[in-house]
Write a structure and sequence with these properties.
13 strands, alpha/beta, Spore Coat Polysaccharide Biosynthesis Protein SpsA, Chain A, two-stranded antiparallel sheet
């Protein structure tokens, strides 16, 4: 399965300003979050990217993309009808092709030789189906993520056959329906903020959006997909940072700094800061 396009959603309430934020990457270079997301996608071998925006924000995104703007196609979500409908807005762009999807309020830090998106695209290409990136997540974080339940794929350490998907479940519901053998109590596999989606997902989203008046989560479409055809989740060797939550930007910046060329400088500054706060 050849994956040559990507879709980044950045049209949600409060989300449109997050990709415009500036951080310092692992190499000590100041960039916008949008530039870091584009570079993440490019490392997976994808140069054509659609960004789904809210009305009136295209100029700000063009400026934030810098020299990478030539890779982008902008798609406007004219009505605020939720995450699933935002992805569906890019249907004319992706047509019937599988595509990589990232959310605009997450940054990623790989622990492996390959970037996180590259890991996911390789799995999807090999297995030729929809694949969601996931990460073990403590139950107190369930209100922020879609969560999967399923079974480990035989002879694979990081692949799971998805049987159930719930959007931001309560700990009680997750314990009842989403536990996976091998994970300790209170730990679940939650979405990582990136997926490889096929046209089957778009067909389901189209149906759900047409029959509902309110927002449609992507998780609802993926839950329906799991009952129809093979759908995998891949535990990524890396970490996601949701910059849309409280202290999310701070956490992302600290992680990038501590994993990069300025690690010693950051540690020294942290020690100085802690000594002042006593």
């Amino acid at each position: 399965m050849k994956i040559s396009k990507a879709v980044v959603t950045a049209a949600g309430p409060g989300q449109s300003s997050l990709p415009l934020q500036r951080l310092v990457d692992r190499d000590g270079i100041e960039k916008t979050a949008l530039e870091m997301i584009i570079e993440e996608i490019a490392e997976a071998g994808i140069d054509s990217i659609a960004v789904v925006l809210s009305p009136g924000t295209e100029d700000a995104f063009r400026q934030a993309a810098g020299k990478l703007v030539e890779r982008l196609t902008f798609v406007v979500q004219s009505e605020a009808r939720g995450y699933g409908q935002a992805i569906l807005c890019a249907r004319n762009y992706v047509r019937d092709q599988p595509f990589l999807h990232l959310v605009g309020d997450h940054l990623y830090l790989s622990r492996a030789g390959k970037k996180c998106a590259q890991q996911l695209v390789q799995v999807a290409s090999n297995h030729e189906c929809t694949v969601s990136a996931v990460q073990p997540t403590r139950e107190q974080m369930l209100p922020y993520f879609g969560t999967i339940g399923g079974l480990r794929v035989a002879q694979e350490t990081n692949l799971f056959e998805v049987k159930r998907v719930l959007e931001k479940p309560t700990p009680t519901l997750a314990e009842q329906e989403l536990t996976i053998a091998g994970f300790r109590n209170g730990t679940y596999l939650c979405f990582f903020g990136m997926h490889v989606l096929t046209s089957s997902v778009l067909d389901i989203l189209d149906h759900l959006v047409a029959r509902r008046s309110g927002p449609v989560p992507l998780a609802d479409a993926l839950n329906e997909l799991a009952s129809r055809q093979r759908y995998l989740a891949c535990e990524i060797d890396g970490q996601r940072y949701n910059i849309g939550v409280k202290y999310g930007l701070l956490s992302a910046q600290l992680a990038l700094g501590l994993a990069g060329v300025d690690r010693d400088r950051i540690l020294t500054q942290l020690v100085d800061l802690l000594s002042v706060q006593r």
